[in-house]
Amino acid sequence: MVGGGLFEKEFKQVRTLFLFLFIFNSFALPFAIWSQYSSYMEFLKKHPTYTLEPFVIRFGEDPILFISTLFLFFIAINQMGTERAKGIMDFTLALPYKRSKIFFVKWILAIGIIVFSTLISLILSGSYIEWHDIAVSEPLLNYYFIYFSSLTMFYTLTLSAGALTGTPFAQGLTAISASVLPLLFTFVIGMNVEAFRIVSYPEMEMLYEAGLLLTPALQFFGGTFFRETASAYRYYFAIPGSMAIIFYLIGYISFIKHPNERNGNFFLWKQLNLPVQIIVILLGVLGFSSMGYGISNESFTGYILGAIIGAAVSIILGYYLIYKKTKQS
Question: Which range among 36-40, 123-127, 141-145, 217-221 shows the weakest confidence by mean pLDDT?
Fold first, then answer.
């Protein structure tokens, strides 16, 4: 297998999902813009005396980014977790290629499709908007920069999760957990801080804003919370872009340094088991303790009982999800 053999092999393994992603990501938004504007013009023709608000394309108020992310999520799982579970990864690693090249080829194939399909979508959408002089909720390039960097970030996160984990389930759970972890930590810490009135309201607002900014999954469910602030939103793409670089480095180093053969463990590198278990217990204790405090009418006894229940639940979940080995066929 020489030349582009590795590219061909990796593409063929996930070609159906690649094709669906390319078609959807290229034409979904242009079609949505055409459909909305056509419906608006048809309504005006049928009801010429009816007064409507000016037509404005509001980016980010549709599920297009979320659906494209789902395609990339399953692509990354097929490239790593499913390939490992089926034993294909053992074959891939036996090929005359460095592990660094194998990881890069997997990544660049998906990124290439994201780039080309996003460019097609940008050209089609931009041309239609300019031709009909349609008003937009934000500059088109701003939106597409954030759209592209968000897709790249979440795909890289999921692929890198596969370089750390031993099963498709573990890869998916790790990717989803990491994408909401900052928000979870902010929420449970904020609940405990508010319970004991440790800090003032403005300080709590700053804590929540920081958590929201650093939560990868946030923009897939309605966009960023400061979308209305044009001066700040213009540069928001730098946040998911920076995260994508960090996630890539984590996945790249893990794929090279850690074992990649299938072994049924949640984490391929067993040294991760204890730190992750501690994080799970911490979230459980903080979350259940604050819930117990609220349910018991702000009783300290309720807080302690909630913490005990949270610790027990977290230990059980950690055992079955992290430490219990999955049987391999």
Answer: 217-221
List of residues 6+ apart from 153 with CB closer than 8 A: 216, 240, 241, 243, 244, 247
Closest CA to 255 of 111, 74, 85, 105: 105
CA-nearest of 137, 116, 129, 148 to 33 is 129
Q: Tell which residue, 186, 178, 160, has the closest CA to residue 257.
A: 160
Cβ proximity of 267 and 170 under 8 Å: yes
Q: Tokens 């090279």 label which residue? A: 256
Annotated domain spans of the chain: 5-168+230-262
pLDDT of residue 329: 46
Contacts 24+ apart (CB under 8 A), 248-251: 248/107, 248/156, 248/160, 250/160, 250/163, 250/164, 251/103, 251/107, 251/156, 251/159, 251/160, 251/161, 251/162, 251/163, 251/164
Question: Helix, strand, or coil here: 135?
Answer: strand
Selection from 72, 65, 76 nearest residue 221 by Cα: 65
Instruction: Convert 13-41 to b/e letters by CB count within 10 Å (16 or more is b).
Output: bbeebbeebbebbbbbbbebbeebbeeee
Mean pLDDT of the chain: 84
Q: Assign residue 3 a region: left if phi > 0, alpha if psi is -120 to 50, beta otherwise?
A: left
Phi, psi for 136 (deg, rounded to 5): -125, 155
Yes or no: say if 258 and 268 are a contact pair by the CB < 8 Å rule: yes
Q: Using alpha carbons, select from 165, 166, 164 the residue that is nearest to residue 327.
A: 166
Q: Which residue has the tokens 């303790």?
A: 289
Q: In DSSP terms, which residues pair with 267 in a beta bridge?
A: 165
CA dist 183 → 65, 180, 247 (Å): 20, 5, 18
Task: Say if CB 146 and CB 237 are below 8 A apart.
Answer: yes
Q: Would you place residue 188 in the very low, low, confident or very high pLDDT band (cuts 50, 70, 90)?
A: confident
